[in-house]
Amino acid sequence: MTGDHPYACKTPDCPKDCCDRCWQRREVCLCHAIPRVETRTEILIIRHLFEAHRSSNTARIAHLALPNSRIIDYGGGYDFDGALLAEPGTWLLHPDPGGSVPEGPPRRLVLLDGSWRQARKMLLRIEGVRALPRLKLSAPSVPVARLRQPPRADGLSTIEAVAAALALMEGEAAATPLKVLFGKMVQGGLYMRGLAFDGERLALRR
Questions:
Q1: Which residue, of 14, 90, 95, 116, is most buried by count of CB atoms within 10 Å of its CB?
Q2: Which residue has the higher pLDDT, 20 or 13?
Q3: Contact 18, 25 (CB under 8 A)
Q4: DSSP letters along 24-80, please?
Q5: CB atoms within 10 A of CB 174
Q6: Which three-class secondary structure state does DSSP give residue 96?
């Protein structure tokens, strides 16, 4: 690992003993477990700038596993090219009651990566996003351990949302490796906090 990697830690509060590729602590580095998941659909993640330097950001991990994906940071003076959203076959993954399911896999699926508040602001401020057809996912049916809990029952981390969308559009073969990777990320994060998940709730690790 070298500091030249595009995701290398650049903030003073980031531990020096974290991996500069996956941004996890070196004790629980995920790099050896990151699969290569080929998809027909391009995954375009518009990530709020404040998420870019968080080790718990799952968009980074999803991107490392998906060759047909891009992350574009938004905010803080970063310009966003709205032409990326004008290409035919571009859909938005968003928890909207008016969402639907495309007849075939979209050419590109856009996700807004950030807190709920940040995502709402991006939805309103990024030109072209609100006009996209929307893909809606069902809420998780069983308890899921996460490093950050969403404020809504239908809330998903970005990598969970990508996996669920791929399961719907391209089948479980594309989704399962991402689900497994997310599970390992959560296990590592909980381990570093001295916690464990028993399938229903978090508890101190014994």
A1: 90
A2: 20
A3: yes
A4: SBGGG--GGG------SSEEEEEEEGGGTT-TT-HHHHHHHH-TTEEEEEEBTTB--
A5: 21
A6: coil
Asked whether the predicted pLDDT for residue 6 surpasses 50, the reply is no
pLDDT at 75: 85
Q: How many CB atoms lie within 10 A of CB 65?
A: 20
Could you tell me which of 145, 158, 160 has the C-alpha nearest to residue 191? Answer: 145
CA-nearest of 42, 31, 62, 9 to 175 is: 62
Asked if residues 47 and 76 have their Cβ atoms less than 8 Å apart, the reply is: no
Cα distances from 187 to residues 8, 19, 192, in angstroms, run 22, 16, 9
- Predicted local confidence at residue 48, as pLDDT: 92
pLDDT the model gives residue 100: 66
Eight-class DSSP state of 206 = -
The full DSSP string for 126-193 is STTTTTS-EE--PPPSS----SS--SSTT---HHHHHHHHHHHHT-HHHHHHHHHHHHHHHHHHHHHT
CB atoms within 10 A of CB 89: 14
185 Cβ neighbours under 8 A, 6+ residues apart: 24, 30, 58, 61, 147, 159
- 15 pLDDT exceeds 70? no
Place of tokens 């290398």: 8
